[in-house]
Amino acid sequence: xxxxxxAALRDGFTDPIRDVLWxxxxxxxxxxxxxxxxxxxxxxxxxQLGPAYAVYPGATHTRAAHSIGVYHLARRLLLNxxxxxAESWLSPVGAVSFLCAALLHDLGHFPYTHSLKELPxxxxxxxxxxxxxxxxxxxxxxxxxxxxALSAAIVDTGLPVGSEKEPVFYRKLLSGVLDPDKLDYLxxxxxxxxxxxxxxxxxxxxxxxYPHQEQGVTIDSKGIxxxxxxxxxxxxxxxxxxWHPIVRSATGMVKKALLAGLEEGIIxxxxxxxxxxxxxxxxxxxxxxxxxxxxEQVRIGRFYGAVAEFPFNGADHRxxxxxxxxxxxxxxxATELSEALGETLRPEDVLxxxxxxxxxxxxxxxxxxxxxxxxxxxxFNAGSVESFVKSLRIIRIFVDPEHENRxxxxxxxxxxxxxxxxxxxxx
Length: 427
Prior knowledge:
- A hairpin with a 3-residue loop joins strand 1 (15-19) and strand 2 (23-27).
- The chain has helices spanning 2-10, 29-35, 38-41, 63-83, 92-104, 124-132, 137-143, 148-155, 165-174, 180-193, 202-207, 224-242, 245-263, 269-272, 277-285, 293-299, 323-341, 382-392, 401-408, 413-423; strands at 15-19, 23-27, 209-212, 216-219, 305-311, 350-353, 365-366, 371-372, 394-399.
- It is an alpha+beta fold.
- The chain has 2 domains: 2-242, Hypothetical protein af1432; 248-358 and 390-423, no CATH class.
């Protein structure tokens, strides 16, 4: 079986794609055909970082470029692990299925997907699995030498795999602390944003990984600094890029509009799946709803401005985690600000943004220390990770730019926010 696996990972990779980050990336003609399919081509029309280009003009790279990078790192990772013993439980079909899963893992994404998890929408992994199991992707995966059902199950962990260990191994590789997804997006996002925070030493990281059939990979203590670098880079990228106030404002505006449209039946969830960036703006521009003007404002770069911010506290801010209840708080705050300013602020002019939960995966096993990463000699213990998360989750109150300066200069603003904080259990 071992040589067959090596052949599946090495032979016939004759079609190059030139990538800004990784140089030449080679695919078999059959894998290259997947990148030319209609579902994959749609990913070229979705910005990887959504509205982040408003802050970092270079951040116009696409989910397609990212997906090709993930495939490249997945192939390097699997070859490395096969050379270190994993070939004993890998199959040629399984190896190719894993490469297809890495290449296709974002097929179910639609614009702003990661920012819309609070809305009643299906998981993008579930949508990806459905696309892989449908034509034309299903036949293309089979022609490449993979099993479409296995590729779908690797991406969507909600699909059953029975007692087979090989699919579980691939799932651990595709989603973990040192997965090819994270290694690509941290490096790629940093490169295109022009910031240094995400750069990782991929060659060294791959050299410190060892295969484990149940856990996916383990590291030795020499690899601890690499994991620390990834975790700290993720923190810095969230702080400076992913959760930049302007990015939070833009995504919050889109989310507010979509919530209203979904709750009132102006749009159906199914209409969002399969859209690209331009398609989302066109869909909402064609439907009658006053809040859809927020999406048009995002399109033209007219973002709401922050007038207040304070740290999120899970014990005190449970009410704000309910997006529908949060809308009612926005209405009340708009009323109070209107009275204080002597001008009308509509409920849609006020936005309360609460960043979603974020995790810093520390479940990697350190073999020579005999413990998991969070219990190892790393500085990233449970307490430090909790501090990182706490410093990132900042609640912000945004208002329409038409009112922003007057709200900021309002003599009663602090008093209103102080009272409102108490009413919202924010003290």
